[in-house]
Amino acid sequence: MSHAIGIDIPVRAPTPSSVTTPSLQRMAFRRPLSMRNSRVNVSLALARKSSRLSLASNVIQNKSSNEKLTPRAKKLSEIVGHLTVASEADQAIRQGLGCSGWDLFAGVGTKKWDNISYRLSRRKQLIERSRCLVDVGFLLAMLGVLVMLLEAELFLQGVISKLHIVSVTFKLIVTVSTVCLLIAVVAYHVTRIQLSMVDDGIEHWGLAVRPSWIGCILLELFICSIHPLPGQVYELSLHQVESVLSILMFLRLYIAARFFVVHSSLVTDTATQSLGALNKVKIDGMFVFKAVMSERPGSLLIVMMGVIFVLSSWSVHACDAYMAVYNNMTIAQVPGQTLENAMWMSAITFLTVGYGDVTPKSECGRVTAVVTGLLGVGSTALLVAVLAQKLEQSRSEKYVHSFVSRVTLDKVHKHAAADVIKSVLKLWRMRRQTSAVKNSHRTQTQGKLLQAVRRMREIKQEKANIGEAAVGIIEVNSAVGDVYQITEAIAVQQALFNDRAEEMDTRLSNIENTLENIANAVIPD
């Protein structure tokens, strides 16, 4: 059964010798097309044979009206019917989407994608453009965050009000930078889509866009669009909206991570990209994070913990300070409004200590404290994993330590064996001098003997434990390789033995036949 859109048709085309009329002979496929797969063969065959389908169909219909069709003619009629349906579907796709059926599957419409030089140069241009767009987005995001921090601190310190010209100007700068940032984000994703089109050789952009990309783009646009608006335009409590919008602007810092990723040597190096493509490893942000975590885990963790501490401290300070300013509260009522108390509270929350002497009073500050605690737990887990990895002995250190421990245990084992021999000889001598030796001396000597024997057994168990601890993946791999070699040698020997057994059977059969011939010659019937 064939499909309607340019895909495989599992019906073998008739040979020219099986065609009964000249018109049908012209309809037969002469040779297979030298294309990459069967979908290309069917799509191009539909385009070339579409002008001949009507002629072949008319010939078959006229022949069927005059005389009964042969089995070969019926087979060819089925092929013509399948091709007619596929051709109609292909024409519908051309009219509806502006591309052929094969274009729908692969997007190959022109020959420029066959030029590897053009594709490489185009890919290089798009990569450079995406890197420049990331740089622009990083600068705009940092500009908006810094201006927001400056405006908020001036207001919280009582220097300006929300309706002051300085506050309105700063917020207008934040709004303009936000609009430019949204444009940069859209341009970056458009460039990534074009890069995907170049990598896959696709003409239509709709084929390169995956559903997950749409969700990511919308999420990024939503995150980057969050910022406090100029003036007082909020219907809810002003301090809650101002503090929440100001804190949510820190979500733009994901662009900083993207900035460091696109400028990483792992991403910019062509050799690394080639190796990743050959091994089907995607060189992306997660790969760069894992690589940096394995190379410089201490530095990365310190930077992460420092950034989290600073952001959480200012967030708690902003939430409580906004509430204190709008409600005319003192420091005693809202201790978190000072930056020092906010830093202390964030530190003890991040370290999961929580003394409780300083607590956030606003809902925004409490949510920030919960998020800080969760991030502290995650950072502590990463720190413990890194410390465990750093404190673990290397393979060479394990071998040296195991060897030294074995030598030490061998010495102790020899001393314990010597104590056993001395105790046995002393007991043998005491047994010969039964009358002169006290029972207490004999009991003491027996206790020393039992202690020495127990010590020998403990040392033997410790040596066994050291041997088990020294076995790792490399040792297991080596042992498996040795077993495999031994198994191969046994298989070779068994094959030789089977050959010799067959040869022996053949010789015995020949001897038996020779003896039968001799017996028949000597003893006639």
UniProtKB/TrEMBL annotation:
It comes from the Eukaryota. It is found in: Membrane. Its main location: membrane. The chain crosses the membrane at residues 132-150, 170-191, 212-230, 236-255, 298-316, 367-388. Residues 324-392 form the Potassium channel domain. Keywords: Ion channel, Ion transport, Membrane, Transmembrane, Transmembrane helix, Transport. Residues 408-477 form the Calmodulin-binding domain. GO terms for cellular component: membrane. It comes from Littorina saxatilis. InterPro entries: CaM-bd_dom (IPR004178), CaM-bd_dom_sf (IPR036122), K_chnl_Ca-activ_SK (IPR015449), K_chnl_dom (IPR013099). PANTHER family: SMALL CONDUCTANCE CALCIUM-ACTIVATED POTASSIUM CHANNEL. Coiled coil: none annotated. The lineage of its organism: Eukaryota, Metazoa, Spiralia, Lophotrochozoa, Mollusca. Gene3D superfamilies: 1.10.287.70. It holds the Pfam family Ion_trans_2. It is a multi-pass membrane protein. GO terms for molecular function: calmodulin binding; small conductance calcium-activated potassium channel activity. Residues 1-20 are annotated as: Disordered. This is Uncharacterized protein.
